[in-house]
Amino acid sequence: MVQQWPKAFCDLKNRKCLRTPNNFTLHGLWPDNYIGQLSNCAGAAFHAITDQNLISRLESGWPDLLQLNYKGARGQSFWKHEWVEHGTCSTTPKDYEAYFNLAVDLKNEHYILRTLRQSGIQPAVCTPSGQSTVNIYGVNSSIVGATRSQIQIRCKINKQNKKKPRTLLYEIIICYDSTGTTVINCPPPHIGQTCLQNSGQVDFL
């Protein structure tokens, strides 16, 4: 289960985000077979979701940061992409609503931002100065302590300012067994090489 920090996503490449929640949001639920990530498996075709309860859950936990309107196929293109590329390889390849509900359920089991705050790790939006540089080892320790399993952390470099590129905390990955009920150790590397530049100091926008 991959969660992303929206402000980092939007900051990269000057993406024109129409929403930037102050919380981690789902990037995807990506099955693998312990060797590599699975993609584009045989599964049911995606049809626009009409269940308003599910749409509300996805809008809150798995929003398309580049969209405001979730009506019809065009408004749900992000969810369609995630289903076709990843959901068709899940344990419910014929039921995309079950896949999306499971993803949101798993996200809600581990409130990453609250876990980090309990360890004194705050994003820039929550600090008086509007800036926040955090130690990636502290981030890792905080979440591993909560999940009791090894996670993966990914960072990205914003090179817009060529003289002073910034390393951004970008994604947190928590791994589950094939049933989607038990947290397991993610495979290495647990901390991406990009995160380790600058002695593990990264910007948490």
From TrEMBL:
GO CC entries: extracellular region
Key word Cytoplasm present: no
CDD domains: RNase_T2_euk
Keyword terms: Disulfide bond, Endonuclease, Glycoprotein, Hydrolase, Lyase, Nuclease, Secreted, Signal
Source species, domain of life: Eukaryota
Signal peptide boundaries: none
Annotated SUPFAM superfamilies: Ribonuclease Rh-like (SSF55895)
Subcellular location: Secreted, Extracellular space
Similarity field: Belongs to the RNase T2 family.
Protein name (Swiss-Prot/TrEMBL): Uncharacterized protein
